[in-house]
Each structure stands twice: as C-alpha cells, then as structure tokens.
Structures
1.
Amino acid sequence: MNCYEKLIKYSFFLLGKKRYTIFEIKQKLNQHFEKKYNKWIKEKNFLEEEIENNDEKEDFKNKTIKKIINRLLELKYLDDFSFAKDYISHSLELRPRGKFLLTRELKNKGIEEDIISENLLKFDIDEFEIAKKLLEKNKYKWRKSPSQKQKEKAFRFLASKGLNPDAILNALKEFQL
C-alpha cells in the first residue's frame, strides 16, 4: 500500500467517526503523515518517487494531501458550507450562543469568513431571546449574591456565550437584575 492509499484510508476512518472541515482533515493528515513517515519509508512500494531531503518530503506530503482533499471533496465527504450550516443549527438548538462566539468557533475550525456570514444570515438569531432564556435557566447560579453582583455575574455569563452587549443589557433590564 502506498502513501496515498494509507492516508486516504486514514481519512475515511476519521470521517467515519465524525465530520471534519477541510482545514481540520488537512491537520489530521499532516500529523498522521509525520507520525508514520519513518515507519512507512521502510516498507516496500511506499513512495512513488525517491525523497532525498526535507523539502522534497514536504512537497510530496503536500501534493499527496491535496490529492486526498480533492478526492474527498469530489466524493462529497467534505463540505465546509454544509458543515457551517449544520454547526450553527445544532449549536442554536443544543447550546445557544451568540453570533460572535459562533463565528469564532467556526473560524477556529478553518471555515472561511464569507461562508460563515452567509450561513449566519440564513438563521434568525435573536440574541435578546437567547439571553432571556439563558437567564431564566441559570438564575439559580447568582441568586444568593447581592443585587449588583447578580447583575455583574449574569452579564459575564451571557458575554461568555458570545452575546451582543446591547442584547445582554436589555435582557437584564427585562429580567430586573
């Protein structure tokens, strides 16, 4: 089995467990290549070409990974647009958070900003409503604190969820904190 076959087999293994973005799968394949490289070069039929130095190794690795990514895109195993859409949908449903935090999380997964903003527009994210629901659900956490401390703790909590400061202040007013 050559390098391409080993890496594509590994990518199928990864994608069988969970969804990845293009960026994440590239990282995983890079790590796997570096980890297994010395073992693989001892095997017969591993390399299609002779690698003499580190630059050639990097070039070979990058070409192979690019070829694998293209194949995975062709097979529709990787799709950053639908990944972002599903990620936003599940996040709003399971662990509500604001646009800022969703954007940051998707950027950390290597999703391009235009894909993120296009997907965020598809969802009606009412940060004020999210803030109210989170306040109602978590009010027990700061109930014993003095009034000003309650407000500060609640504000920090909601800000940690990536909510807009205006939405937080309006929710705090309505919640009478």
2.
Amino acid sequence: MLRRHRAIFFAAAAMLALGAFGRQHSAGGDAKATPNVDRHGDALPDGAVTRMGTTRWRHGDAITFLAFPSDDTVLTAAPDNTARLWERKTGKEIRRFEVGGTQQPQIGQPGAMMMAVPFGRGAGSRVAITPDGKIFAAAVANNTIQLWDVGTGKALRELKGPATGISGLLFSPNGKALAITGNERTIHLIKTENGDEIRQIKAMLQKGPVRFILGGGFAESNGLDFSPDGKILASAEIEFGQQ
C-alpha cells in the first residue's frame, strides 16, 4: 500500500512538473510567436483570432478606377479616397495610397460647382496613370493634383490645376504632359515635372439653338484621348439642345 501511494505521489509530481514546463514553454513561445494572421498569411486586426473569407482583391468600396501598372500588378481607386496596388497573381495588397485634401470648395469660391475630391461616386475620371505605369495622379480639393511613384509609394509632387475645377485627367503617351479638363470647356495642358502650363485648348463655338454644352465625358469617362504619337488630343462634349 505504501509503495502504491508513493507511485501515485511521484506520478502527480511528474504531471505538475510537466504542467509547469508546458507553461514556461508556452510563455517563452509567446515572445517568439508568429504574427496573428489568417489562413492566407494576411495580418488580422488586434484581438481577432480568425477571418471568414479574405481581404485579397477587396478594396472595401466601389472601384471607380482600374489599371495595370505592370504585368504583375493591378491598381484600383475607390470613393474611400485611397488607391491600392495589388499583386496580380495572388490579389495581395502591396501598398496603399492615402489621398489627401478632402475639403470641398465652399459656395462662392472657384470650383464650388465641381466635386474636387477625386474618388467620390462617379469620379474615376479624376485619376490617371502614365502609360508606362510608373506615376499615378489624382485630383484633390482646392484644384490640386497629387502625383505618386507607383513602384515605391512615394509622394512625388503636387501640381496646381485650373481654378475653375477639374473634371478629368489624362497623361500624354510619353507621360511628360497632363491634360486637364475643367468647367469652362477648356483643356489645360501642363508639364508633369513642374506643373507649368504648356497651352490651353479652347472648345469651338457651336452654331444653332444649343441651350447648354458640358465639356468632358460623363460619369466614369474623362472624355479625353491622345493619339498614339501624342500629337492629337480628342475631347468629347455633351450637348443639350432644343428638340
């Protein structure tokens, strides 16, 4: 009987020792624990233990702009005032561009009739990317245009747009010029490197009983396009006339 009690005592002592070792091992492991991630390896919010579904290919809002900066990446922009660069093969988010300047012009100020925030509903025309996919541009409040390096995510510079508002942006084929449509049926062509104006292209006067003409495209279209050699710029207009 004494031997039996001794055996039970030693077994209990061994279990307690193993329990203590397990806690110490666990505590030591916590310091070196892998980040809290979902099954795809993407980080979870603080306190979350799992994720149903995935955040890959999920911008989080209606996408109003889509482009391929390269064969390996996809760029999206949405009304949440962000642009996101995705890995094409996996849909993993590479980086995010936080667009600044969300204050709208007040009534009575230049551009008050134009929604200057780039990614509002139907605002896909107020963003652009160079044909080589290296520079991303977006129109922000106070008629300013922000430029980013797509490859590094670095903010490059800000350019001043026309005081009457910005309704569309388009880079020239070589990326050295930016065409901007405003509210006064005039296209402003500026240098990408410093914002200096190259020239203004005025709309032709219309003949006949036309009541109203709106420059640029409609909804997601900027109503602009360059010829492949960059020598010709076409502009669309919406004409509201009498029946």
3.
Amino acid sequence: MKTTNEVMLRTSDLEEAKAYYNGQLGLTIVLENDRVVGFDTGAFNLYFERGEPNGAVFEIAVDDVARAKERFMAAGCQLLEENPSIPRVYLCDRFGLIFNISQA
C-alpha cells in the first residue's frame, strides 16, 4: 500500500476551477473533459470533478481493492461512495481523512 500523487476535489463549476488554477495561478492542465479537469502542481496532480463538494480525496494504491476495503472498514473507516465502473471506493477514516483505494 502506498499513496499516489493524485488529489481529487469536487466542484459544481469546473470552468471556475480552470479559470483560477490555470488562468490565475498558471498551473498546467494535465486532464480535461466534461467531468474532470486536472492540474500539475509540481508535487502532485490536483483534480476537480463535477459534483457536490466533499473535501479533498487522497488516493491509496493497493494490490487488492476488495481486501483493502475490508481491512479499512474493520479498522473503523466509513464507506462514503463505491462505484465499480470508475472504479472508486471512497472511505473516511476516524480522523476525517477521505481517501480512494485503487488498484496498484
């Protein structure tokens, strides 16, 4: 298990995020489509996904997503969202950190 250099936030206005992070701050766009816009910050990639804001989501890459999900849930994490088609498993730990577990 290890963290990746990906951080995701949700926003209702992708164009506003793009105007600020690319237009004002000058960050390079690394991904852009109708659902997501991403920026290279130098140390990590910062992505904004269209949707209701839910806080910053960090990514943890694991060898087995199902087994890691069970392990984190047994340790007290709460399942926030799961979508196998993306794939996505958002969990929140007891300290409030939200993270996505993904296949390494």
4.
Amino acid sequence: MAGNIQRPSRGRKRHGAMAEINVVPYIDVMLVLLIIFMVTAPLITQGVKVDLPKATSKPLEPDEKEPLIVSIKADGSYYINLGDKAQEPIAPELVGERVAIVLRATPGTPVYVGGDRTVPYGDVVKLMTILQDAGAESVGLMTEEPSPNSPDKR
C-alpha cells in the first residue's frame, strides 16, 4: 500500500482552466479600425449632400415655412418661386445672391431643386452647390409620381 500514496508535487500547484479572456488583441484590432475610420471618414463626406429620391417616393410632410424652389429647365434657364416674378428666368450668377437674401431673411427655409428630366446631372450638381454656398442647410430634389399607365417608371 505504500506504493499507492500520492505525494503533492514540489514547487508546482495545479490550477483549473484559466477563465479570463485576453483582451489585448481585441484592443489592437479596435485601434486599427479606429485609425482606418478616422482616415477614411473625411474622404467619404466630400461632395454635395444629396438624398436621391426613389421613383415612388412619399410626399414630404407639410412644413410651416413655404419652400424656396429653384428650377432649371432643359435650355439651362433658372427660375425661383419668388413673388410675382416666379415665371421670369433669372441669370445664373444672380441665383446665389437671391437665395442668400431669402435665407438671411427667413432662416431654415426648405430649399428644393426642380430640374427638367433632360438637364445634365452636372448642371443640377452645380445648382445645388450654388444653393449650399448661399446658405441652404440642405437641398432637396423634387420628383413627380409616375402615372400608373406610364411606361417610363424611372
């Protein structure tokens, strides 16, 4: 029986499984991701802020303030829905000045762009840039609901 007695090992203690998670690798990964996002975020936010409408978009909720609508026709002429001269074209260099005057007088006025379907995209972006430089916080794009019989539902 003397051979069956177990003696404690000297200098070594037995422990159970270690239940701690080593978080150092996770912290390293998080720091790398943070650096990547900090570097790429300014690159992503450049440009004109546009929420492109879908073809079957919902109409906007009525706002207390009457919106300022700047339209651009296929021939490149600009129109602003101001007073009794809403149907008269306005010179492109005056659009920004007139919009800035309206926005200074009534801050927070919603600004929308109504563009003809055949107007080049670059002209619409140029107009939106002029409006933002004039002080518009955000610029919306106007659309019309396609008719159910229309073959063009874009």
